[in-house]
């Protein structure tokens, strides 16, 4: 298993993939965090779906990670793309047969891949958290937001909790990407399907009927990153999202272990 | 089974209604070069994939280095393979691609550079795989197959895309490996290549075994041929007629007649042709080569 992780990390650390992914994460982190502070007085709102996040909320102990938790969904989509591409490319390049000849334990390959991609995601999340908090701290005085409570013990606890929630959410998005990669066996198909569903289909469905978001997978995983929302409690999101991820992972694992490698 | 590198019994693979490999049986002794021949779609790659645990057989059993193919984890650490061409990550260099496999298999990383040197990629190891020519990709595939210092090497068309010099190098490499005790199981459409290096042949046609055994035994089964050429192309049909009358099967191929007969019948043919007013330009014996034998046995030409 350890050998699989080392081999996978070798692939993940290539500069175009690593810096490309981190660059995308930083772009969304910077954009969304800055938006919250720079648009604080905007009548169109400064939060998700036109919601307003006021000075009182940002001034709380959890204020430092408001931007970071808002960017969680985007980090999740980035993770979905990376996990899906890294999994499906083994089929399109035909490299899966090399991997299986060197490591015939298929579950070991799958779990090793997942661990290495989790480590990769963890680096991305950590950098995003640091940058988001730094931007928030820099922009807060200009937006007349108090930072007095941000680094108290309660504030540090909020940072830690949000980091855990975002990590759970991003890894779950990544597992969904991995499942799509295994099922569709093509990076383009897996990424297109995943991104279209999360960014377009789910939003359209929620626009048609708001209560549907209680059962849509992307909405659950995004809510986990935020520690729950007005419409979705954290526990509900964790339970329903967990069921989606578990069922998908079981189906994909069984298929991966049993399916002939004929390409 | 102890001296057998590969042993299969009643092995089949069915895809929907199509039987890709049909109840095949053969054994390959250890420490030899075994050519695996058959037309495209005859089931060679499917057989190799079953032997490597990549696909599950529909029926039958197989053993690799004494271990059942249902448990590839028991033998794959001693097997090197390149199936259906070299497959690597285009954005990684040749060196990095081998490092991925070396780390995965837990092989010493020093072997990576040694093998790149061995297959002639020492200076291009740091270049990205996507910039490699087909021949270089093949060389990298062979290097990857050699990573575990294998007891059994399975190569599918390893000389594809190689220049004549490269083909000669691969031929020498495979022979050296067999001399050192490695069993080499190699498929190729270049039958002349296999004829030079192989000790043993497994011949497949439409998923069925046509022949499996020592190459000498295969050739001994074949009748010698007399090649006759005349000054006038129009005389070839008459030479066929003379041969057939004497009870020898004959066919025209290109500008000569191929007659299935022992060489001691050649003077008789020479005299008969002279009496018929035919001037022979060439009359020579020819032992069948692997290619002719293959076509004869598979009935493909």
Briefly characterize the structure.
The complex is a heterodimer of chains A (263) and B (301). Chain A has 263 residues and is mainly alpha-helical. Chain A contains ten helices and no strands.
Describe what this molecule looks like in 3D:
- The complex is a heterodimer of chains A (263) and B (301).
- By secondary structure, chain A is an all-alpha fold.
- Chain A has one domain (2-258).
- Chain A contains ten helices and no strands.
- The radius of gyration of chain A is 19 Å and the shape is globular.
- The model of chain A has no long low-confidence stretch (mean pLDDT 90).
- Chain B is an alpha/beta fold and 301 residues long.
- Chain B folds into two domains: 4-220, P-loop containing nucleotide triphosphate hydrolases (Rossmann fold, 3-Layer(aba) Sandwich), CATH 3.40.50; 225-298, Alpha-Beta Plaits, CATH 3.30.70.790.
- Helix content of chain B is 33%, strand content 29%.
- Chain B contains ten helices and 14 strands.
- Chain B has a six-stranded mixed beta sheet, with helices on both faces.
- In chain B, a hairpin with a 2-residue loop joins strand 4 (59-64) and strand 5 (67-68).
- In chain B, helix 2 crosses helix 3 and helix 3 packs across helix 4.
- The longest helix of chain B has 16 residues, at 164-179.
- The radius of gyration of chain B is 23 Å and the shape is elongated.
- The two termini of chain B are 36 Å apart.
- The model of chain B has no long low-confidence stretch (mean pLDDT 87).
- Chain A binds chain B through residues 3-4, 6-7, 10-11, 14, 16-17, 89, 93-95, 97-105, 260-262, and chain B through 49, 52-56, 72-73, 76, 79, 81, 83-85, 87-92, 96, 99-101, 103-106, 144, 147-148.
Question: Which SSEs are present, and which pair or pack?
Answer:
The complex is a heterodimer of chains A (263) and B (301).
Chain A: H1 2-12, H2 15-38, H3 55-58, H4 66-92, H5 96-102, H6 106-139, H7 153-184, H8 187-208, H9 217-225, H10 234-258
Chain B: E1 4-15, E2 18-29, E3 33-37, H1 44-51, E4 59-64, E5 67-68, E6 79-82, H2 94-105, H3 110-118, H4 134-146, E7 152-156, H5 164-179, E8 183-187, H6 191-197, E9 200-205, E10 208-214, H7 215-220, E11 225-230, H8 236-245, E12 250-253, E13 256-260, H9 266-275, E14 280-286, H10 290-298
Parallel strand pairs in B: 3-8, 3-9, 6-7, 7-8
Antiparallel strand pairs in B: 1-2, 1-4, 4-5, 9-10, 11-13, 11-14, 12-13
Helix pairs in contact in B: 2-3, 3-4
């Amino acid at each position: 298993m350890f050998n699989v992780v080392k081999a996978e990390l070798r692939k993940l650390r290539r500069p175009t993939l690593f810096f490309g992914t981190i660059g995308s994460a930083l772009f969304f982190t910077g954009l969304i965090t800055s938006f919250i502070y720079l648009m604080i007085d905007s009548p169109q709102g400064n939060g998700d779906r036109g919601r307003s996040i006021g000075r009182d909320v940002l001034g709380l102990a959890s204020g430092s990670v408001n931007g970071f938790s808002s960017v969680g969904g985007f980090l999740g989509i980035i993770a979905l793309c990376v996990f899906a591409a890294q999994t499906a490319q083994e089929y399109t390049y035909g490299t899966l047969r090399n991997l299986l000849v060197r490591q015939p334990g298929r579950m070991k390959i799958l779990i090793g891949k997942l661990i290495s991609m989790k480590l990769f995601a963890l680096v991305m999340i950590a950098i995003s958290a640091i940058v988001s908090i730094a931007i928030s701290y820099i922009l807060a005085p200009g937006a007349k937001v108090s930072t007095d409570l941000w680094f108290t013990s309660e504030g540090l606890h909020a940072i830690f909790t949000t980091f855990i929630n975002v990590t759970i959410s991003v890894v779950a998005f990544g597992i969904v990407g991995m499942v799509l990669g295994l099922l569709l066996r093509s990076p383009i198909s897996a990424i297109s399907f995943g991104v279209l569903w999360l960014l377009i289909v789910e939003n359209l469905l929620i626009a048609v009927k708001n209560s549907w978001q209680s059962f849509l997978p992307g909405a659950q995983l995004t809510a986990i990153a935020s520690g729950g929302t007005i419409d979705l409690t954290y526990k509900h999101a964790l339970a329903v999202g967990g069921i989606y991820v578990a069922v998908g992972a079981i189906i994909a694992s069984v298929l991966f272990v049993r399916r002939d490698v004929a390409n | 089974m102890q001296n057998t590198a590969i042993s299969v019994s009643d092995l089949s693979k069915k895809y929907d209604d199509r039987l890709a490999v049909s109840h095949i049986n053969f054994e390959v002794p250890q420490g030899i070069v075994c050519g695996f021949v058959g037309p495209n779609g005859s089931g060679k790659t499917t057989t190799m994939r079953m032997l490597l645990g990549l696909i599950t057989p529909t029926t039958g059993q197989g053993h690799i280095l004494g271990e059942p193919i249902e448990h590839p984890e028991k033998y794959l650490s001693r097997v090197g393979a390149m199936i259906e061409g070299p497959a690597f990550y285009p954005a990684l260099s040749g060196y990095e691609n081998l490092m991925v496999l070396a780390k995965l298999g837990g092989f010493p990383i020093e072997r990576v550079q040694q093998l790149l040197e061995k297959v002639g990629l020492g200076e291009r190891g740091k270049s990205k795989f996507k910039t490699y020519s087909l021949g270089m990709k093949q060389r990298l595939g062979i290097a990857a197959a050699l990573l575990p210092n294998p007891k059994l090497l399975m190569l599918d068309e390893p000389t594809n895309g190689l220049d004549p010099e490269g083909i000669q190098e691969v031929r020498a490499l495979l022979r050296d490996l067999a001399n050192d005790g490695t069993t080499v199981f190699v498929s190729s459409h270049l039958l002349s290549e296999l004829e030079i290096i192989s000790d043993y042949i497994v011949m497949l046609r439409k998923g069925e075994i046509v022949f499996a055994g020592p190459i000498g035994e295969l050739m001994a089964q074949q009748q010698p041929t007399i090649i006759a050429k005349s000054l006038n192309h129009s005389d070839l049909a008459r030479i066929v007629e003379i041969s057939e009358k004497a009870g020898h099967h004959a066919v025209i191929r290109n500008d000569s007649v191929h007659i299935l007969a022992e060489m001691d019948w050649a003077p008789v043919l020479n005299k008969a042709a002279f009496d018929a007013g035919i001037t022979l330009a060439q009359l020579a014996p020819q032992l069948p080569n692997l290619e002719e034998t293959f076509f004869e046995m598979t009935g493909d030409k």
